[in-house]
Specification:
The chain is α/β, with parallel strands linked by helices. The chain has a domain of 171 residues: NADP-dependent oxidoreductase domain (TIM Barrel). Helix content is 41%, strand content 15%. The chain has eleven helices and ten strands. Strand 4, helix 2 and strand 5 form a beta-alpha-beta unit. The chain is globular and about 50 Å long.
Length: 292
């Protein structure tokens, strides 16, 4: 496991995502996954208030009892209600309310990195940064980041933070993987591609990449087990060309397809990338970590 120092935190480069805990993934399996991840050097667990109505956070909280001092906890707040994605929750009241619920559910005194789960470009950045800094001053969070925010909005927010002597966003959490999207299936998601990637390459701003394995596309393509959703989103000539490159290198280096895809993602970026992985079982985690 590689480690990168970010804002004074010595973070494992591979981050464990926990979406689906209690729904797709039962408690026994979730605990097995988290145990194996930690045993292999992982120390960053990423969750969200949104995931499974807080049950993901509850599973994480139960698991980390007695282990909190060894781990960094990352969670996300202020997601719009799923029934109305246009309903913005980027205000101090909703931010603090979600953070308080996360602290109680996980059973911790502070969150290492809290992420704003979505953006609302109609809202000015100043009150958002002011609200997040209040959370830091209250000791509820150590650092904060932006998930699904465009680079220019993050830059605008951080420029305001510098001018006012406050903390800015520590990192970004966009969709980023080796597959090439065939379509945009959710216009509230921000993906690193094209000019957006060029801006990260130029500034070296850190990225926590969600869906870093494209929902397991490359491994599933190899076993002819792609879901209709994966086919719709990623199956195209460009992605297949990349798949062939991944397979060639995996064979040369005697590594798994999943591990190779993550290594290539990291290597193609001129900025620090922390891939967030979301294994549904221990076997998938072993493949990602190249554990024989």
């Amino acid at each position: 496991m590689n480690y990168i120092n970010l804002a004074g935190m010595n973070l494992s480069q591979i981050v464990l995502g926990t979406d689906g805990y209690s729904e797709r993934i039962d408690k026994k399996t979730a605990f097995e996954i988290m145990n194996l991840y930690i045993e292999n050097g992982g120390n960053v667990i990423d969750t969200a208030r949104l995931y499974c109505n807080g049950m993901s956070e509850a599973f994480v909280g139960e698991f980390i009892k007695g282990k909190r001092h060894k781990l960094y906890i990352s969670t996300k707040c202020s997601h719009p209600p799923l029934s109305d994605m246009s309903h913005s929750r980027l205000n101090e009241e909703d931010i603090e309310s979600d953070i308080d619920k996360s602290l109680k559910t996980i059973g911790i005194d502070y969150i290492d990195i809290v992420w704003l789960h979505r953006d609302d470009i109609t809202k000015p950045v100043a009150p958002i940064i002011d609200a997040l800094n209040k959370m830091v001053k209250k000791g509820k969070v150590r650092h904060f980041g932006a998930s699904n925010w465009r680079f220019d909005r993050i830059s605008e927010a951080n420029e305001y933070a510098i001018k006012t002597g406050q903390l800015g966003f520590t990192a970004s959490q966009p969709l980023y993987n080796m597959a090439i999207r065939s379509k945009v299936w959710d216009d509230t998601l921000v993906c690193i591609e094209g000019k957006e990637k060029q801006k990260y390459d130029k500034t070296h701003f850190p990225v926590f990449a969600f869906s870093s394995q494209a929902k397991g596309f490359f491994e599933k393509y190899a076993t002819n087990s792609l879901s209709p959703k994966a086919i719709d989103r990623y199956l195209n000539d460009n992605t297949i060309t990349i798949y062939e490159q991944i397979c060639k290198r995996a064979k040369e280096e005697n590594t798994t397809i999943s591990a190779t895809a993550l290594n290539m993602l990291i290597e193609q970026s001129d900025f620090d990338v922390f891939p967030i992985i979301g294994p549904s079982n221990v076997s998938q985690l072993k493949s990602t970590l190249n554990i024989k």
